Amino acid sequence: MEHLVQRDAARRAVDVWACARCGGRLRVLAYLTAPGGVSSILEHLGLPSEPAKRAPAQGPPHLAWC
What we know:
By secondary structure, this protein is mainly alpha-helical. It has a domain at 2-44. The chain has two helices and no strands. The mean pLDDT is 81.
């Protein structure tokens, strides 16, 4: 997984391993794959564990000059 992130970073020319606040190096603490584990961590952090509701579909915007 880490190699995919590095390859994506090289493509974007962005250092994804640099902290946006202090510029220090980030590191992977864990790879979470089980939905139950992800939900319990999000709940512990006080973050929503359910996905956001999607907005209803809309047609294309109408142009003023048509």
